[in-house]
Amino acid sequence: MRCLVVDDCEELALLWRLELTTRSFDVDVALNAEEAFKAMLHTRYDLIVADLGLPDGSGVTVAQSAAMRAPDADVVVVTARTEFPNGELFGMSDNIVGVFRKSADMSDLYAFVEHLRERRERDDAPAVRAARDRGEAEEAGADIFGPAWSKARRITANAAE
Question: Which structural domains are found in the chain, ordered by start?
């Protein structure tokens, strides 16, 4: 899984690259938004971990650019801010799937990234991909994941109402 880490703190970006690489991710690092935009011109990323506050932009602008270049890319925004946004970041770009505070213990971020990888692998399973191509993804999900699929779909539908 291709990952781009975008953070202006080089030490932190390199630490994240090391951690994600040990988890079998193929990781590139950009130290600002401009470097991220250039990297996205040449590489299609599955996951982007972007700092909210960059010297020449923000994690949101990186997410918006990624949405145009690679609509399937998931973006996780990280921030050092103590005031935590109340979900408004999710409305700024459709591909922002998570927001985390920077801290000494980033185990929650790494667990979330692993979840995203597992979801992507599951969604790319041949049966689901073929059903999606035929417009039958709901049925394929139920066939593969059983009753839990139907329950999850009901919960999601109820939450959307």
Answer: 2-122 (3.40.50.2300), 127-160 (no CATH)
